[in-house]
Design a protein that fits this description.
- This protein has 121 residues and is an alpha/beta fold.
- It has a single domain, classed as Hypothetical Protein Ychn, Chain: A.
- 29% of the residues lie in helices and 19% in strands.
- The protein has four helices and five strands.
- A five-stranded parallel β-sheet has the order 4-3-2-1-5.
- Strand 3, helix 3 and strand 4 form a beta-alpha-beta unit.
- The longest helix is centred in the N-terminal third of the chain and has 13 residues.
Length: 121
């Protein structure tokens, strides 16, 4: 990943805060369905959108909705987040729905700059 047909999707939305997380999820699902390599960057607390134990109703999603987990079925997707937030989730026992690679903020920026297209939401 990180070139050619790749798309970087940068998400900053606060988790379970109105409709913003739903829009982030819809955007990620659409990007994954485009038959392109997708790199999703969850900045700061946006990583908590992947928390397995949160109730989806708070983000105006149907009960039992775990569409983040469906992303790999739609296409080639890699997820990245700030290492500090990945560590914070691990320390708090927060299970994430998908594997996320933690990187330093400057490394995240270097990665997404290598993508052919970048979309920040």
């Amino acid at each position: 990943m990180g070139g050619g047909r790749s798309l970087a999707l940068i998400l900053r939305g606060l988790p379970y805060h109105g409709r913003a997380p739903r829009a982030d999820l819809d955007l990620a699902l659409a990007a994954a369905a485009l038959d392109r390599e997708v790199e999703i960057y969850l900045l700061g607390p946006a990583l908590l959108q992947l928390a397995a134990q949160r109730a989806p109703e708070a983000a105006e999603l149907p009960v039992g909705y775990r569409a983040w987990a469906a992303l790999p079925e739609l296409g080639e997707v890699a997820l990245f987040a700030e290492q500090g937030w990945v560590d914070r989730c691990a320390k708090a026992g927060i299970e994430l729905l998908l594997p996320v690679q933690g990187l330093a903020p400057d490394e995240l920026a270097k990665r997404w700059r290598r993508c052919r297209q970048v979309l920040a939401a």
